[in-house]
Write a structure and sequence with these properties.
The structure holds two protein chains of two kinds. By secondary structure, chain A is an all-alpha fold. Chain A has five helices and no strands. The chains are: A mainly alpha, B alpha+beta. At the A-B interface, helix 1, helix 2, helix 3 and helix 4 of A face helix 1, helix 2, strand 4, strand 5 and helix 4 of B.
Chain lengths: 106, 395
């Protein structure tokens, strides 16, 4: 083994080792704990709403998946093309007081 | 003996790679970027899916909605008794919930009414609300809000109470009793939880009406039968089982992940075509090299092995770095920009954390999409020039 192949070997070993360390770290600090899951379940069972609160601009969000199997495609606010303004051209920057408006993020 | 790794060939491969340092470094960077992008998308989608799936079992087994003219409509609570009488039904609860549009901030809150703060709820709700706040919620006519709602209300100077405007224009003030814990943001950010009577009052709904009816079934095997029974009894309803919810989730994430997979496949094939093109039009120097190698006694097999090592070194390093970067990007930096693909552009932004899920499938998928294809794209053209007569190549 010459110097260069040793370097290569070390690079790969270090990369794999870093991945292992990162996985251990993420697994112990960033994954959902039992308590988290339990709390989430308490909340969900008292609310009974299926969808996550990640999109709130439109009227149908929290029961989107309650409509039918394919309504995600026609109604899902997650699909950016849903609002015509986002499909081809940018929305108006002057008039933005309509419902489900899009605020320009700075 | 044939399959033994030849360390000298590896050394030769490294030297050969280093001879074209800049080209190979560039390939490495592009490749790493491509793999990390794809892996990140899958990781984000997996995390959100995991979050949804971990609460899926707490959702009502069956939800009954009334349809009128193809639209969702309030349902009469009288049919609750009929549903409870179906064999196998554990409980049927009429629910009142809906959206409240708060024009000042341009957001929709999800208002959910529950049967007063009864004991069964009190104990469990106590666990998920920031401590010391709940005592207020037990007072009459107060509500528990999600962190996002609380923030919006604070910005609009409603720190103690909120004035709901009823459909007839009159005002209904409701005290803020508590706030949900912030680690529940993903589920509760836009939620206003209040007693059912208050919800009915805000929406100006009649006492005997409800938004929908949730049905609890103890035996999962019976869900489908009970759902079809309800459908038969009330043909004007839409009966949704929790299985259908699961399918619907799957659709969203498959759609989004799939869109990216398609984009990725396009870009990665472009990448391979470029590589293939580059290598198949081997420069005369490289062809000469292969020729000389063969002239000094290398077999075709050895040349191919050497090329294999070369491409494996590049693609494997790119793959490991790609994985490493996407783990860091998604779970430590919480995937800025890319996350928005899944969250939409809502006003009530959640600042949720993507929970870490270790998913072997994604890692395998990305591995097989990148490493073997790259190796093939380099080996095939070298095989072509390695099989040409030696003297032809050198000349």
């Amino acid at each position: 083994m010459n110097k260069k192949s040793k370097y290569l070997f070390f690079t790969i070993v270090i990369a794999l080792f870093t991945i292992a360390i990162e996985l251990t770290y993420l697994n112990s600090f960033k994954s959902l704990t039992k308590k988290d899951i339990e709390e989430k379940n308490i909340l969900v069972s008292s609310l009974g709403l299926p969808d996550l609160a990640i999109s709130t601009e439109a009227m149908y969000i929290r029961h989107r998946s309650l409509s039918d199997t394919f309504s995600v495609f026609k109604e899902g606010p997650e699909l950016k093309e849903y609002f015509p303004t986002t499909f081809i051209y940018s929305h108006s920057h002057i008039l933005n007081n309509t419902p489900s408006k899009i605020i320009n993020e700075k | 003996m044939k399959n033994k790794i030849n360390i000298y060939l590896i050394e030769y491969a490294i030297n050969s790679l280093l001879r074209q340092k800049y080209k190979n470094i560039f390939i490495l960077i592009v490749f790493t970027f491509l793999t990390s992008l794809l892996t990140s998308i899958f990781f984000i989608s997996n995390s959100i899916k995991h979050e949804l799936n971990s609460t899926l079992k707490s959702l009502p087994e069956i939800t009954v909605q009334k349809l009128k003219a193809g639209r969702h409509h309030s349902i009469n609570t009288q049919i609750v008794d009929d549903i409870i009488n179906i064999a196998g039904v554990e409980d049927a609860i009429p629910r009142v919930w809906g959206y409240y549009y708060f024009a000042n901030a341009g957001v929709n809150f999800s208002v959910v009414g529950i049967d007063e703060f009864e004991n069964q709820y009190k104990d469990s709700l106590n666990k998920i609300i920031k401590e010391n706040d709940f005592s207020k919620a037990e007072e009459n006519s107060s509500m528990i809000v999600g962190t996002g709602v609380k923030k919006i209300l604070d910005e609009n100077y409603y720190s103690e109470y909120f004035n709901f405007i009823r459909p007839d224009g009159t005002i209904k003030p409701v005290n803020i009793g508590g706030v949900f814990k912030s680690n529940l943001q993903l589920e509760s950010n836009d939620i206003i939880l209040l007693p059912k009577e208050t919800a009915l009052d805000i929406f100006a709904m009649q006492e005997d009406m409800a938004t929908d009816i949730i049905v609890k079934v103890s035996n999962p095997e019976e869900i489908f039968t009970i759902a079809s029974k309800i459908k038969l009894m009330y043909p004007d309803t839409r009966v949704i089982t929790n299985k259908e919810l699961e399918i619907s989730y799957q659709n969203i994430f498959d759609y989004k992940g799939g869109m990216f997979l398609a984009l990725f496949i396009v870009s990665i094939f472009t990448f391979f075509i470029i590589i293939y093109d580059k290598v198949s039009g081997l420069s005369s120097e490289e062809k000469k090299e292969i020729g000389i190698l063969k002239a000094i006694g290398w077999k075709v097999e050895d040349v191919l092995k050497e090329k294999f090592y070369e491409s494996f070194i590049i693609s494997f390093i790119a793959y490991t770095f790609g994985i490493l970067i996407s783990f860091t990007f998604v779970y430590i930096f919480q995937a800025p920009l890319l996350r928005n693909i899944f969250t939409g552009y809502s006003q009530l932004k959640t600042s949720f954390e993507l929970p870490f899920v270790f998913d072997f499938n994604t890692l395998f998928l990305v591995f097989f999409l990148s490493v073997p294809i790259y190796i093939a794209a380099t080996i095939i053209p070298s095989w072509k020039s390695a099989t040409i007569e030696t003297d032809k190549v050198i000349r």
